[in-house]
Amino acid sequence: MNFGLWYNRPTEKCEYIGHVKLTRSTPGDGWSVGRKTTSNKEESILVCVDVTMSNLMIPIYTEDEHSSINHNFVYFNASRTCFKYLNSVENEDIFLIIKHFCPTYLIRRLHNIECVHSIFLYQQPEDNKNKDGLIESCPKIVGIYTDPNAMKTDLINVIARSRQRSFSFNTCLSDIKAYYYLTPTDISFMISQVLKLHLSSYTNDKNYSTKQLLHLCREYYYENKVELQRIDEFEKSLMASDDTLVQWYTEDTFVQRLLKKAFAHNDFEILIPFQAYIVDLRNYIKSKFETSDEYKKGENVTFSFTTRLSHDQLNQIKQNVKQLLALKGFLLCNRSCQKAIPAAWNDRKNCDKKFSAVFLLKVDTRMGATKYYNVSDDRVLLDMASVFTIDDITSLGLTELDTAYCVQLTATNDGEKLARKYHDSQKEICGDSFEICHLLLSSMNAENGSKYFEHLLVTDSGGAMEDLLAARAFTYTTADPSVAILLFSEAIQMQQHDEPPKKRDYVCTSKMLGDCYLASGETLKAMAIFKAALNYAQENQLDNYIMQAQLVCRIGQCYEKTGRFNTALMQYETACVLDAKAPKSEYSTGPGYLLSIARIFSHQERYDLAYKICIDALNTFRKVVPETHHYIQHSVRLAAEAAIKNGDLEAFREVTSILEKSKDNEPSTMCSIQ
Fold first, then answer.
1. How high is the pLDDT of residue 151?
2. Are residues 375 and 303 in contact, defined by beta-carbon separation less than 8 angstroms?
3. 514-557 pLDDT, tens per residue?
4. Which of helix, strand or coil describes residue 320?
5. Phi then psi for 333, rounded to 5 degrees?
6. Domains in the chain: boundaries
7. 449 neighbors 475 (Cβ within 8 angstroms)
């Protein structure tokens, strides 16, 4: 671990205070002191700013004291660099210490930065202490301190409380009609459910995974003596008893901090080493749940959880009433619901632009949909990625500006059902190994997909080596097609020698190799590969019509790129015919082929036909995907373009009104409440 400036810039001078590196940037920018890590794997950062511009920045606490408060910390002695840093922070909470003299207007500016969770004023002069209304108008200010020990105690308590209320979730439609056209929210939901499905069949070497986990933790907390000691304790507890598994997650430990952020952001760099621990914890929760009196009696129980929701997150829940909500990771809840609603109401007035909310989670133990462990008499730990139906959301106040919200949820098995249907849909189209990778790439997270399959390759688990190699190549398809081409080519050579031959996987890998050549601009090479794969599928009587339709469509794209529009049109029409033969409509990609046909008609200036086909595609899409789906919007745009070029203003107005409605109702892609 290095110490120094948190962002890259040319430096002029470096000094050291003990083990902490001081870095000064360009004149006037001031100094920055702190612990720098390559990436923050926790959700909180401790920041101290001293705007007196002193050349000697003396930290309030020693390095070990900082480590006991929060792993990541940084000091600034100039407001300019501090503001620049704070405005660059995403997905993390800042706990800000303002040291010595700081003008009131600067305190208010720092207070209004969204990522700042709490502010602690240290050794402020008398004129700041006595300013009327400073704390009243800035609720993020916890207090004004002269005793560093008192401030340290409050820092630890406030940061711990923030971590306890950290809550990430995804929403999803309860009835997905087209698995090929998943929305961003559906994709994020499906990642958590498919991951849970895969972990249920985890069979890897536990010792290897534990070594990976300990290595990752010691590397990340390098030179943090406090956490290194806790990691040693964690290693001993893993060998001693399973009873400590829950304790490491329910208490404020490095295990809880790393996993919460990893679950929230699908960080497979953390999740992969932790998978043995996650599986053991899930099995422990399951065994305790199935031996509990509540499960044996088939009781209905209700738990509560309080948090704060942003405006977008609140709308996300409102727009998905009667749909599904999935936890990201495990969740520590309270048994007492009677105290939860008043607590949410008392927390309603805060200037962090968020709304206080209490979640009431109803669980029917007879269903076994949501398993939990009784941590204590008043707390339970819910199993990873538990799924609920959003029953209702109720405002507890009379006005929108002075209210809290109550969200009622009921546990359901629908998440597992959707994950298994998605698993089946992927088996229809390609090999099992591509499943999580496909989701990660669809969510624009190719880097995480690559990490996932690098892990599978190293451990030789989850599928044949050539399938995993092809799956890893898939993650590079958009990020670096040249790398993907090399990996796909190697996988194809290995698949050609399989006994018995994996014909479907060979065709799938060939299609992906062709996609890489197409993305690289090598259209003729791509066309040759697509044609060879199609011939192979037909010669070997592979009745996978969806795959054949995709290959024919790719051939059509190649013809279109070379300007042979009539031939391309024939290919797209053939793709539609093949897709119509597919036995399962939810795996169909047919409407997309209609848009390709419409595009050709537009090239040929046959705008009336292009418009009609776009409308056909639009009507088909509207039966299987939400109005906000990007394919709906793409269909509308193509239809609108054809209508205006055809001079039909009435048709143009009619079709563009659909696009305007979808924009007004467009939800955010994922909810992460922290």
1. 92
2. no
3. 877 787 788 998 899 899 889 888 888 777 788 888 899 999 99
4. coil
5. -120, 170
6. 2-164, 166-429, 543-674
7. yes
17-21, 146-150, 419-423, 543-547: which is most confident: 146-150
* Helix ranges, 170-224 (H): 184-200, 206-220
In whole angstroms, give the CA distance from residue 131 to residue 89. 30
Of the options 3.90.176.10, 3.30.70.890, 3.30.1490.480, 3.100.10.20, the CATH number for the domain spanning 166-429: 3.90.176.10
Order the strands of the 405-411 sheet from edge to edge.
Answer: 372-374, 379-382, 331-334, 300-310, 354-364, 405-411, 387-395, 324-327, 167-172, 671-673
Residue 477 near residue 516 (C-beta atoms within 8 A): yes
Digit-coded pLDDT (tens) for 175-206: 776 666 677 778 888 888 888 877 776 666 67
Do 43 and 80 touch, CB atoms closer than 8 A? no
Tokens representing 609 are 């036909």
Single out the residue of 64, 61, 107, 65 nearest to residue 82, CA to CA.
Answer: 107
CATH 3.40.640.10 fits 543-674, yes or no: no
Query: What sign results for the dihedral spanned by CA atoms 110, 114, 116, 119?
Result: positive
Q: What is the CATH number of domain 2-164?
A: 3.40.50
In this structure, are residues 639 and 621 in contact, taking their beta carbons and an 8 Å threshold?
no
Query: Which residues 6+ apart lie within 8 Å of 111 measured at CB?
Result: 119, 138, 140, 141, 351
pLDDT at position 336 is 83
- Nearest to residue 168, comparing CAs of 295, 331, 336, 365? 331
| 73-76 and 116-122 beta bridge pairing | unpaired
* CA 159 to mean position of chain CA atoms: 23
Contact 96, 49 (CB under 8 A): yes
Angstrom distance (rounded) from CA 670 to CA 564: 41
C-alpha pair distances (Å), 310 with each of 170, 347, 351, 474: 15, 14, 11, 35
Distance CA 600, CA 565 (A): 6
Residue 525 CA to residue 439 CA, distance in Å, equals 27
Which whole-number Å values give the CA distances from 107 to 44, 57, 118, 121, in the listed order? 20, 20, 12, 9
- pLDDT at residue 318 is higher than 70: yes
Q: Angle at the Cα of 123 (from 119 to 127), degrees rounded to 5?
A: 95
In one-letter notation, the amino acid at residue 662 is S
Interval 423-462: pLDDT, tens: 776 665 555 445 555 565 455 455 555 555 555 545 544 4
Q: What is the dihedral of CA 44, 46, 47, 50, to 10 degrees?
A: 160
Q: At what angle do helices 184-200 and 268-290 cross, to 10 degrees?
A: 60
Longest dimension (CA), the chain: 87
Report the Cα 373 to chain-centroid distance in Å.
Answer: 26
Average the pLDDT over each of 344-348, 494-498, 506-510, 571-575 and give the range with the smallest value.
494-498
